[in-house]
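Dear all,

This email documents one entry for the complex benchmark we are building for the journal club exercise. For each entry we list the sequence lines for every component of the assembly. Then comes the predicted three-dimensional structure of the complex as a token string, followed by one or two observations. Please use this as the template for your own entries, and keep the labels exactly as they appear.
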Amino acid sequence: MRTIRIGAGAGYSGDRIEPAVELAEKGELDYLVFECLAERTIALAQQARITDPAAGFDPLLAARMQAVLPICRANNIRIITNMGAANPVSAAEATRSIARELGLSGLKIAAVTGDDVLHQAKAADLALDVGGTISALDNRVLSANAYIGARSIADALAAGADVVITGRAADPALFLGCLVYAFGWAMDDWDLLGKGTVAGHLLECAGQVTGGYFADPGVKNVADLARLGFPIGEVREDGDLVVTKVPGSGGCVTPATVKEQLLYEIHDPAQYLQPDVIADFSQVQVDGLGPDRVRVSGGRGKPKSGWLKTSIGYVDGYVGEGQISYAGPGAVARGRLALEIVRERLAMTGVQTTELRFDLVGVDALHGEALVQAGEPYEVRVRVVGRTATLAEAVKIGNEVETLYTNGPAGGGGAWKSAREVLAVASSLVPESAARLDITVLEA
Amino acid sequence: MKLRDIAHSRAGDKGDICNISVIAYRAEDYALLCDSVTAARVRAHFDGIVKGEVVRYELPLIAALNFVLKNALGGGVTRSLRLDAHGKSLSSRLLDLDIEDVCSR
């Protein structure tokens, strides 16, 4: 039975680059996939594109391409990535320039477009999961991008692309596109598409299946996380796979790491909604085959819904924040006094906020007061954060914390403040016909 | 004993919804997980953090449970004022749950 090897070279926009180089050099790969687009990333990218029409793609695209293009050319590995973000065509042009500088003449780079559905979303006045419709957000709306599927990625590979660059594709679809192309899977063979989605889902967060985000010393030990190896999926024509990594790299692939990633960001395991299929993870089996080799089988699928999840990015006011630390005997009492002073000052000076939080980091910031243990921590950090309608009001929150230096409790140190615009993301659905998909092929 | 003694866990986010997996180290502990870690107990354990309902899904083939916690992330990752806006650390809180020792039952 035919098998292809797909490596995951990034699990998010800022991810490490050396593990991708290691995969390209030693992974015996057919495909190298970079997943770099979180929910909000594309809204940030759209904002960048509004300022500069040639911008709006992943800021690490050049560094990644420079690092892996020559190796992938030499080893006959094709690259698939969503680093196009809000501007896949400019990302493809930038990649072509890099390929030319590296002397990789003839390299074909495809940009997949059509995920930007802002016009259609506005015309249809989409209802949002956060309540209301898109028109209520008025000119605060920045972007609307539909999660597109595997078909156009497979088509771009069929057109001979060495590098395929998309915008908002569904993360597993980056991998599923390779499988559909390589094995000629039909787009209505729901079980195969479901199995391919299992493979893509396990690989899409890169190091999170090879021991990253897993270690708990003394309970779950993982060796050499500073040199964490990224995963390789050996996917068979029948859709089952083995998850592994480059021998000698850091981390580990075990049934436990694979199970944690299988359920990561999943709701009903029998209904994982994707643009191409409703994947069913409920019958998946995970079996250890040996060191750093885990077999995954039993994925299934049901017909797709015909609707595409769509992320709407919008400006949602401002957040102002200030922090300051206290240590030694009485640290908690001084921290609490500091919080009370800032609370009173914000009220006295009439700072306009719609939401405020007063945290004592080291005591109750992450999970509230319910689980606070007896015994005093040696040090605490005061954190005051609030939501405002204007930047000017947001700035005042951090300033009030900073003034604790000379006006607050004894021994406050390390004050820090920030004020920032908030880009929020709401979700909706569009019919798949709303995404007018197109492929542009460039040659170096 | 604590849930951490028999299971491991990972939290993920989508909008204002958090999911937390609970995976038995040993398949034979799956029944104990099912008996002890109910949706109602998880909802109570996260009282004050989770504002919505908690739904439990069972995955016997991998000896795991998946909890879906609604209105759990302070309005959603992209706008929450919480220090851990993603709710990534909630898995550690769930592992602090007390579990009745199977030997003492």
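Observations: The longest helix of chain A spans residues 331-348. Residues 9 and 343 of chain A are 46 Å apart (CA to CA).
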